[in-house]
Amino acid sequence: MHPDIHLVIQLQSLDQNIAALEKEVSALPKHIAGIEKTLESHVRKLEADRAALTANQKDRKKLEGDIQLHEQKISKLKDQMLQAKTNEQYRAFQHEIEFIEKEIRKCEDRILELMSESEPLDQNVKKAEGALKEEKQVVEREKTQARDRTAEDQKQLDQLRGERTQIYGKLPPSTRSAYDRIRKKWHGAVVGEAVESRCSACQIVIRPQYLQDLKRGETLMTCESCGRFLYYNRPVSIEDVASVG
Length: 245
Fold this sequence. Notes:
Blueprint: H1 3-82, H2 87-170, H3 173-185, E1 191-195, E2 198-199, H4 208-216, E3 221-222, E4 229-231, H5 238-244
Parallel strand pairs: 1-4
Antiparallel strand pairs: 1-2, 3-4
Helix pairs in contact: 1-2
């Protein structure tokens, strides 16, 4: 195996790890933005429920005030009715009192409706307040975890980028240029292994003579089909294992 292929394989592994970490680092702020957006929508929903409950209570209070005014008016009309001098005046006061009493009943009916509407609103507000408190705690925990994870990822990235710079600098300029070109073309998949006379990356059969040249490892070679760097791992024999022992 050509010695530079080891560097190329290491470089590919580093680039893949770097890309994965960079993806995670960029995804974390989006994740936090997503959960914060959900939290904001829940806050707005709670505010809307609170506003509806407040409006409900305000309407009930107004109606109760209207009933008081109506009752006061009826009381005055009854006093005036006692002083009526004719039947027509008496009946007029009576009709006006009946009309106001109808208005009171309308107010009372509406108050009952508002009371029935306020019960689920009140329950929703209390339930949402409890859920929102827990959700805020979860969001804060996730934000802290994301900051810690980002810092850890950034530390690893700095280390991996340093290693990459060293390995990249050991390659000849022509190999670096070829590596960059292949990496861009195949989105990080730069190397293929010759397995059973095929390139493991593209699965195209390698010409016998080309495979023999590859096995000699005298030059850094690329797949004739996909253009990736190609290498061959000599099978481990029983004799090799015995000699190591």
